[in-house]
Specification:
55% helix, mainly alpha, hpI Integrase, Chain A, DNA polymerase, domain 1, 299 residues, 3-stranded antiparallel sheet, 13 helices
Length: 299
């Protein structure tokens, strides 16, 4: 098999045998083509590349000021490619594993204040539905925003909810998260009331919890659009995504004294270290409050 055939064979292997998504396949393809393009007509061959070649490429990417996350994704794709070459094509070793990558940037998530959340959650019921929109649409939007903030859901988790997943009497929600892992999350009173009102007004019997005007499962684009709409009507001075409501959920819980393990469980994080980013947010907020309020915080 030629050097030109190997990437194509690898992508087919990832698609057919590993079930990789089109997004993942495209990311792998771009990473392989970017590296191959360094040599143009003088490519030494995939078998001849060693750790020094990859270190040189890493240096070029960093000199080009690419984001660390982008660099790490490219090297992850190449690590997978060479893992395949070792196990399926008899290559002696994986040179990518010998390269020490820059540590990922630790950006603190953007978090809304409680006042901003309160303002946002009241807007759907204050805003008349659009032309030809069903009367229950504002109630659906209110229920979506309430549930995002009440349970810290990912957008994919919210979209996949069924009516049978909500237990109004038990005040809990069954969520299927990453890796098809199920978890039970407590739901706050305002969110439960908003869901119950929407469910009755939309005459929902079974199937998806959140539906479109055509009564099909709501799309991610529709959720993004409704959030943009209400943020635009609010005094919030920056763009927010459903994930920022998830960040706000976790940070406000920790601000109020919730323990880290409980927040980890509610968020569906497999690792506690992922949840710990929110403790940094809480510390930053405490520092800001101290600096602003204490008369001797600064000389």
């Amino acid at each position: 098999m030629t050097d030109e055939d190997l990437p194509r064979d690898f992508l087919q292997f990832m698609e057919v045998e590993r079930g990789a998504s089109q997004h993942t396949l495209e990311r792998y393809r771009r990473a392989i083509e970017n590296l191959r393009g360094r040599w143009q007509d003088d490519f030494p061959g995939w078998r001849s590349l060693n750790a020094d070649h990859f270190r040189d490429w890493l240096y070029e990417l960093m000199k080009a000021e690419l984001a660390r996350s982008t660099i790490r994704l490219r090297f992850a794709a190449l690590r997978s490619f060479y893992r395949y070459l070792v196990h399926r094509r008899g290559f002696p070793k994986n040179p990518v594993t010998e390269v020490q990558l820059p540590k990922p940037e630790r950006k603190l998530p953007v978090v809304l204040t409680r006042a901003q959340v309160d303002e946002l959650l009241t807007l759907p019921l204050k805003t008349p539905p659009g032309r030809n929109a069903p009367a229950w649409l504002p109630m659906r939007d209110a229920a979506i925003l309430e549930l995002f903030y009440s349970c810290g859901l990912r957008i994919s988790e919210l979209r996949s909810l069924e009516l049978s997943d909500i237990d109004l009497l038990g005040e809990t929600l069954r969520v299927t998260g990453k890796g098809s892992r199920e978890r039970q999350i407590p739901v706050g009173g305002p969110a439960l009331a908003a869901i119950d009102r929407y469910r009755r007004e939309a005459a929902l019997g079974s199937g998806p919890l959140f539906i479109s005007k055509r009564r099909t499962r709501i799309t991610q684009q529709a959720v993004d659009a409704l959030l943009r709409k209400y943020v635009g009507l609010s005094s919030i001075p920056f763009k927010i995504s459903p994930h920022k409501l998830r960040h706000s959920f976790a940070t406000h819980l920790l601000d109020a004294g919730a323990d880290l393990r409980s927040v980890q469980s509610m968020l569906g994080h497999s690792s506690l270290s992922t949840t710990q980013i929110y403790t940094h947010v809480t510390k930053e907020r405490l520092r800001e409050a101290y600096d602003q309020a204490h008369p001797r915080a600064r000389e």
